Amino acid sequence: MKITAAVSVGPNTDFALEEVTLESPRDHEVLVEITGVGLCHTDIAARDGVYGLPYPLVLGHEGSGVVIEVGANVSKVGPGDHVALSFNSCGKCTSCTKGSPAYCLEFVAYNYIGSRPDGSNPLGGFGDAELHGHFFGQSSLATHAMASERNVVKIDKSIPLELVGPLGCGIQTGAGAIMRSMSAPEGSSLLVLGAGPVGLAAVLGAVVQKCSTIIVSEPHAGRRALALELGATHALDPADGPLPEQVRGIIAGGADFAFDTTGNVAVIKAAIESMAVNGMLGLVGVPKDFSVELPINIVATMQAGLTIKGIVEGDSDPDVFIPELLDLYKAGRFAFDKMITTFPLSKINDAVTAQHNGEVTKVVLLNN
Ligand SMILES: [Zn+2]
Ligand SMILES: [Zn+2]
């Protein structure tokens, strides 16, 4: 079939909206007409070559939409079902079989190589060039995407379908980090570094967990205001002074949990100095240079009994966690929609600029 896709043609180059082709689903695949797709920092990093993916390439990994066709072996969903698309996983490795698909041993092959794990691609029709995709098992910056049975989650039809795509990556990452990876208990204190969509989702998760003190550190005034609206108890401007002093001015003993979305070594070091004894630091921010290392004082880490935890996708099992988040949303306890601004897919490049400049927090691109 013919579809329209936002094609990445090279680093630091605008997306090009092009008519291309998409095959019919294979046995375990699910063809989805995309209603909305979130724009995640990972898409822009991938467009700009950070993951070393081949061009031309279709990105997009926070899609939602309506199933229009399924492969012969698919039983989980059928035509007409509303679905959110999430990351893909193999379903067979030790992580997947333990219910931890975010740590799938085949995660890269299923999400980050620009094709299906076997090297083939359902996309085509882009001149003579091989068109790469299957990004996070979807490539949903398009009118249609080929997902797999494992990475579609059926959504209740009462929920605004166009908004649920970000639950499949950025929102489940932030909320899951607090609710699942670190399981912050009621009454605990949390420091969130960065109030982009992932940090704000962490704030929402911390409110669900009934954390008593939720401190956000964020340079952008508009995002600090949104953090407070979503339930942060304090929003700090890093320009107002050293972070440990600011945090200890609020809680003298330091924060029980810290969550970094920046990937910035100086910020992470300041966060460690802001933490309480027996605190836990969660890391999801990805540095531009994958070889960056974190210098940690061994003795101070021991003496403070700190735990440093790497986190992928908030330890989510999307089939379990996305419905849980949507139940909270319906109960008025998880207002993730407050951070979303919609743009038509045709305005994707304007949306990238607006998100980059901080004019909007989380973009969802609509197909209408
Ligand atoms: Zn696996
Ligand atoms: Zn993402």
Automatic annotation (TrEMBL):
<dbReference type="GO" id="GO:0016491">
    <property type="term" value="F:oxidoreductase activity"/>
</dbReference>
<dbReference type="InterPro" id="IPR011032">
    <property type="entry name" value="GroES-like_sf"/>
</dbReference>
<keyword id="KW-0560">Oxidoreductase</keyword>
<feature type="domain" description="Enoyl reductase (ER)">
    <location>
        <begin position="10"/>
        <end position="365"/>
    </location>
</feature>
<keyword id="KW-0479">Metal-binding</keyword>
<dbReference type="InterPro" id="IPR013154">
    <property type="entry name" value="ADH-like_N"/>
</dbReference>
<dbReference type="GO" id="GO:0008270">
    <property type="term" value="F:zinc ion binding"/>
</dbReference>
<protein>
    <submittedName>
        <fullName>Aryl-alcohol dehydrogenase</fullName>
    </submittedName>
</protein>
<comment type="similarity">
    <text>Belongs to the zinc-containing alcohol dehydrogenase family.</text>
</comment>
<dbReference type="InterPro" id="IPR020843">
    <property type="entry name" value="ER"/>
</dbReference>
<dbReference type="InterPro" id="IPR002328">
    <property type="entry name" value="ADH_Zn_CS"/>
</dbReference>
<keyword id="KW-0862">Zinc</keyword>
<dbReference type="Pfam" id="PF08240">
    <property type="entry name" value="ADH_N"/>
</dbReference>
<dbReference type="InterPro" id="IPR013149">
    <property type="entry name" value="ADH-like_C"/>
</dbReference>
<dbReference type="InterPro" id="IPR036291">
    <property type="entry name" value="NAD(P)-bd_dom_sf"/>
</dbReference>
<dbReference type="Pfam" id="PF00107">
    <property type="entry name" value="ADH_zinc_N"/>
</dbReference>
